[in-house]
Amino acid sequence: MNAVAGTPDVFALIKAWEGELDVLRDAHGLAARFYEKLHWRLGLPTVIVTAILGAFVWTESNPWTRMVDSNLVAGLLSIVVLVLNAAQTFLKTDERSNRHKNAHDRYDGLQRELQRVVAARPSQEELSAFTADLQARWSKISIEAPILGDALFNKVAGLKTRP
Question: How far apart are CA 146 and CA 95, in angstroms?
């Protein structure tokens, strides 16, 4: 055992932690992108249909409005807008995206710090203090981070373990 390098057990633990942080970081990154895309997929049609509805209702001279039952079309467009707005409000896509992005960034910071400390080859005492501090900060992030679905976590973990 080398006192400068630390015990092999500590480095095995650190290697395992690095892998776990990698999976958590990437899973939260994928979740953030998913919710960001969903936010756009719900938000953009809402804005477009709302604009069409507004133009449709206020343009009585439009020949198209005379060809169809304008009350029916206005009612259907209103329902579409209502459903899209309700889905966006209920799912909180923007908030979820931001929370997953924040978790991704925090796990990434822990992983980079872990790599930096290991590369510095600290003493056993320094390494023990660092791992205790890292574990406490990791626990805090895990408590504050949004929950990842098992399917997403397992998908990312499976991709990381494939040769």
Answer: 10
> Domain coordinates of the chain in residue numbers?
8-161
Give the C-alpha separation, 153 to 146, whole Å. Answer: 12
Specify the pTM.
0.78
Render pLDDT for 108-160 as a digit per residue (tens, 0 to 9): 999 999 999 888 988 888 888 899 999 999 999 999 999 998 888 888 888 76
How far is Cα 135 from Cα 143, in angstroms, rounded to an integer?
Answer: 12
Strand partners, 6: 2
Rounded Cα distance between 11 and 7, Å, is 7
Under 8 Å CB-to-CB from 29, ≥6 apart: which residues? 100, 101, 104
Q: For residue 23, give the nearest of 136, 129, 162, 133 by alpha carbon.
A: 162
| Tokens encoding 74 | 């206005």
> Is pLDDT of 162 > 60?
no
Distance between terminal CA atoms of the chain? 31
